[in-house]
UniProtKB/TrEMBL annotation, chain A:
Cofactor(s) required for function per UniProt: FMN
Keyword Nucleotide-binding: no
Protein name: Putative NAD-dependent formate dehydrogenase beta subunit
Annotated family: Belongs to the complex I 51 kDa subunit family.
InterPro entries, per the entry: NADH-UbQ_OxRdtase_51kDa_CS, Nuo51_FMN-bd, Nuo51_FMN-bd_sf, Nuop51_4Fe4S-bd, Nuop51_4Fe4S-bd_sf
Lineage, broadest ranks: Bacteria, Pseudomonadati, Pseudomonadota, Alphaproteobacteria, Sphingomonadales
GO molecular function annotation: 4 iron, 4 sulfur cluster binding; FMN binding; metal ion binding; NADH dehydrogenase (ubiquinone) activity
From TrEMBL, chain B:
Organism for this UniProt entry: Caenibius tardaugens NBRC 16725
Entry keyword set: Iron, Iron-sulfur, Metal-binding
Superkingdom classification of source: Bacteria
GO molecular function per UniProt: iron-sulfur cluster binding; metal ion binding
Protein's name according to its UniProt entry: Putative NAD-dependent formate dehydrogenase gamma subunit
Gene3D superfamilies, per the entry: Glutaredoxin, NADH-quinone oxidoreductase subunit E
SUPFAM superfamilies from the UniProt entry: Thioredoxin-like
Length: 520, 141
């Protein structure tokens, strides 16, 4: 018998050389099976032979691995502390199944949730989802069951289910891993949602930066079509616009329009895609549903977590971290545990300076606040957000004023342009930070030609000092926070203000000089 | 087939879908390397929209471009997690290696944020890049 070698075909593993590795094993006479990724990304490509792991493996390691004598051996994968320490529900199949095998899916509990949903009927499905305490995993944390109930009760015969797979946040890849590793789970979640709300059509909107995910999903939908009928669904590719992750912009984009944010109300649950009632949910939200619907799943789900944050959260450990990857656990875990115990500190070996949680719109958190528990309300109270659960670690070489500037520049580049605080504010914010950091004017600014006109009685007499500029930046952030139509403009102040609050030296405070009124 | 016929075939392929605009634009760009004025006009008339409406959509998204550019494109991730792993320090050498032969583009996250810096060429992704690996990629593009 040839040795059975299991290697992931996830995009990350492939980008790290998994395809060449698989070919080398096949060449050496092994039988190769391509499975989903376990999520231990620092070990990818990870090779599994009879439960034993080897990684990160290269083509040169193939002979030694087949002889069982490789220095890349990590022992039994399922017992690895990174895996054994997790509470995996959404990612229960990660590393264990072939993504496009209906047989593997059914053998691991697939379709049980859908079968029970069909048996108990829409009202009890919604009651179960409400009882589980499941909140939207895409960012806002809105209770999924309540949203479904609104769609179910909305008048109209044509309704839609839309899966938000835009995953634009830096530091996040859980949606991508599910699309590539367990696509039937998303399809089952959508079919259950469709059954609950009375929808016949579903769309999954995937960003164009994820070509592997798009191909996998298309193949999976074709295979699963008879199981989910009469519900039909299709994949739509985005076209490179971060704001299309915002649900109303996403609907506009699906309809073939510019991805501009719509004012709410009307809620998409009442007037969504093509004006019809629409349930729009994140990939992780929908993928949690089959488990919840299976026998006893709702109680088990509700038992996990803390306070109003129930169940598990797939957390993505990224950036400058030694053990980066996917870590699913119940709410309540702290950043300290995640960054140091599980993540092993920085990959560079230098001290941690900051962690950004929740993507490009999330706050930068300094190490002295790492005991904050992972919980929607606790983060909101600390002027931070959990978002999609991405954690990006920075070491002490990071320039936080530069990161604040990047946040504003990103907002300017990705703004949909609908409202002024975001469209104009982000551009002005970049300019302000440049001036604050400018050595030439020592962070200040001279009066310009217009301000110097004698008619301009209220213009600053002496130009603006660095302190004035910072006050202006703070004021601008307030305007963006309270005046923006959506969270792109509304949350960009989080990374900017947290960077300014915790690392003022990076903005040049340390070199603050006494203000002088000369030069005019 | 003439250019018009190929364009027409793409539009016809998607015309019966709900909201066919993005699928059409993706296919047009894949076929012709861009969505130019003639394509915008053809799409507008097929979907019963004004030319301005189509142009508004094309210009909104980063993926579409109005003019074909036959150079190979290397997209480098410049988002936070790749910054934390040092991508910015690689850019100067990268530009030098690319010269005018290769088109460099910024991209904001390829979903490989734990193994950056990362790049994309066509549908192929490359992870764990350092200066030498990136230079090699660009020269081979
Ligand atoms: C700028 C912006 C980008 C967003 N990007 C995403 C995204 O990539 N994926 C996602 O699921 N939700 C994203 N959201 C949140 C969605 O608007 C919406 O809350 C979510 O799709 C609802 O699904 P859920 O209740 O299951 O979380 C984004 C919101 C904003 C304001
Ligand atoms: S905040 Fe920005 S992205 Fe959101 S609606 Fe306003 S302009 Fe558009
Ligand atoms: S931040 Fe570069 S791949 Fe995600």
């Amino acid at each position: 018998m040839n040795t059975l070698v299991r290697i992931s075909d996830d995009a990350l593993a492939r980008a790290c050389g998994a395809d060449a590795l698989a070919a080398a094993f096949a060449q050496a006479g092994a039988m190769v099976e391509r499975v989903s990724s376990w999520g231990m990304h620092w070990l990818e490509p990870l090779v599994e032979i009879e439960g034993q792991g080897f990684g990160p493996a290269t083509v040169a390691d193939v002979p030694a691995i087949l002889q069982g004598s490789s220095v890349k051996a990590i022992g039994r994968i399922a017992d690895h502390p990174f895996i054994a320490g997790q509470q995996r529900l959404t990612f229960a199949r990660a590393g264990r199944t072939r993504p496009l095998s209906l047989e593997d899916y059914a053998a691991t509990g697939g379709w049980l949730g859908l079968e029970r949903a069909r048996a108990i009927g829409p009202a009890r499905v919604i009651a179960d989802v409400i009882a589980s305490g499941l909140r939207g995993r895409g960012g806002a944390g809105f209770p999924a069951g309540i949203k479904w109930q609104t769609v179910a009760n909305a008048p109209g015969t044509r309704k839609y289910v839309v899966c938000n797979a835009d995953e634009g946040d830096s530091g996040t890849f859980a949606d991508r891993m599910l699309m590539e590793g367990d696509p039937f789970a998303i399809i089952e979640g959508m079919a259950i949602a469709a059954h609950a709300v009375g929808a016949q059509h579903g769309y999954i909107y995937v960003r164009s930066e994820y070509p592997d995910a798009i191909r996998k999903l298309e193949a999976a939908i074709a295979l699963a079509a008879p199981v989910i009928a009469p519900f039909v669904m299709e994949v739509r590719a985005g076209a490179g616009a971060y704001v299309c992750g915002e649900e109303t912009a996403l609907l506009n984009s699906l309809e073939g329009k510019r991805g501009e944010v719509r004012a709410k109300p009307p809620l998409p649950a009442l007037e969504g895609l093509f004006g019809c009632p629409t349930a729009i949910n994140n990939v992780l939200t929908l993928t949690a549903v089959p488990h919840i619907l299976a026998e006893g799943g709702a109680e088990e789900y509700a038992r996990l977590g803390i306070d109003r944050s129930r169940g598990t959260k797939p957390i993505q450990l990224a950036g400058n971290i030694r053990h980066g990857g996917l870590y699913e656990t119940a709410f309540g875990i702290t950043l300290r545990e995640l960054v140091y115990d599980i993540g092993g500190g920085t990959a560079s070996g230098r001290p941690v300076k900051a962690v950004q949680v929740g993507g490009p719109l999330g706050a930068y958190i300094p190490p002295d606040q790492f005991d904050l528990p992972f919980d929607y309300e606790a983060y909101a109270a600390a002027d931070a957000l959990i978002g999609h659960g991405g954690i990006v670690v920075f070491d002490d070489t990071a320039d936080m004023a530069g990161m604040a500037r990047f946040a504003l520049q990103f907002c300017a580049a990705e703004s949909c342009g609908k409202c002024t605080p975001c469209r104009v504010g982000a551009v002005r914010g970049v300019e302000l930070i440049d001036r604050i950091r400018s050595e030439a004017t020592n962070g200040g600014r001279m009066r310009d030609a217009v301000e110097a006109l004698p008619q301009m009685h209220n213009a600053p007499r002496d130009g603006r000092s660095r302190a004035d500029q910072i006050a202006l930046l703070t004021d601008l952030c307030d305007t963006m926070k309270y005046g923006s139509l959506c969270a792109l403009g509304g949350f960009t102040p989080y990374p900017v203000m947290s960077a300014l609050r915790h690392w003022p030296d990076d903005f040049g405070h340390a070199v603050e000089q006494p203000e002088t009124a000369d030069g005019l | 087939m003439s250019r018009e016929e190929r364009l027409g075939a793409i539009i016809a392929r998607h015309a019966r879908r709900e909201g066919p605009m993005l699928p059409i634009l993706h296919d047009v760009q894949a076929e012709f390397g861009c969505v130019d004025d003639a394509a915008e006009r053809a799409i507008a008339s097929a979907l019963n929209l004004s030319r301005a409406e189509v142009h508004g959509v094309v210009s909104f998204y980063h993926d579409f471009r109005g003019k074909a550019d036959p150079r190979p494109e290397v997209q480098i991730c410049r988002a936070e997690a790749c910054k934390a792993r040092g991508v910015d320090a690689l850019i100067a050498q990268t530009q030098e290696a690319a010269g005018s032969r290769v088109r460099l583009a910024d991209v904001y996250c390829l979903g490989l944020c734990s193994v950056g810096p990362n790049a994309r060429i066509g549908d192929t992704l490359h992870a764990r890049l350092d200066a030498a690996a990136l230079k090699h990629l660009i020269e081979a593009a």
